[in-house]
Amino acid sequence: MDTLADVLAAGAVEGSVAARLAAGEPWGLRLAAVPGAAFHAVTAGTAWLRMPDRPPVRLMPGDAVLLPTGAAHELLSDLAAPVWPFDHAAAEAALDRGAPMAIGTVPAGTHVLCASYRHDPAATLATFGLLPDLVPVRSADAPASLRTTLQLLADELQTGGPGTRAVLDHVVNVLLVQLLRAWIAGRDATAAAPSWLRGLADPVTRSALAELHRAPGRAWTTEELARRAGVSRATLGRRFAAEVGSTPSAYLTTWRMELAARRLRTTDDPVGAVARSVGYTSEYAFNRAFARRHGIAPGRYRSRNRKPNWT
What we know:
The structure is a single chain. The chain has two domains: 3-189, Jelly Rolls (Sandwich); 202-311, Arc Repressor Mutant, subunit A, CATH 1.10.10. It contains 13 helices and eleven strands. The chain has helices at 3-10, 88-97, 144-159, 164-185, 187-191, 196-199, 203-214, 222-229, 233-243, 248-266, 271-277, 283-294, 298-305, and strands spanning 14-24, 28-31, 37-44, 47-50, 57-59, 64-67, 73-76, 84-85, 101-104, 110-118, 135-137. α7 (203-214) crosses α8 (222-229) and α8 crosses α9 (233-243). The protein is elongated. The two termini are 30 Å apart.
């Protein structure tokens, strides 16, 4: 199974285009903090990204950057440029017309795609919270698949046509997966705190996580999981603790509770059926495990979270 895709789906993580910028020097935009994550890709020209308490970053053509915490930041033509608040209404109106939002002077030398990613606020298994507050991917360092997607993005922005916004929304979802892949494959992942996301960088824990996600209702033993991963029981326990930060059985319980919570939020299935789907033969045992994880009984959880409150 695909652990990354599973967790993104459980958290209902999805992206949408927030703005297409066509900017002529001098120009500067101040973007307020947002829930979820923010994303920018420079498809032509250059731009500076400035955040409080860190050095500014110059973005070149083909560069992309993810701000997993949605922190406030600025995009500028140069560090001395005047800065205006980002006009969400103007950006939305431009998208509806199928045109970029023009800022600064004419002609526009810089083109930037701005997107945002949101997730179900009731989901508890973090993705964005495991990342640093800034994840840049340089065009020269990006894997071929990411460069191809960024080129598709640039081509779509240049040519446009019916359905452009739908195409762009799909592309930014693909870009998120590719950006996360690039982070997992890089040195930053091994320096991060142990988590399921860091565990994907290690072949042993990646294999074990895939097995747990393939059959979360199975009564897994450490011995069987180690055999599937091709290592000893002791090696699996040591690697899992170092990379994921828990035992395999503890992670399995966490994942089962995340799946159960998602099903409670999105279906009318009886609690007993939800319990059985994640490997519990006793509804009582499931209720206790769920309450330990979420702090509330399954029935009350469903009534509170039946319709996710996107913010």
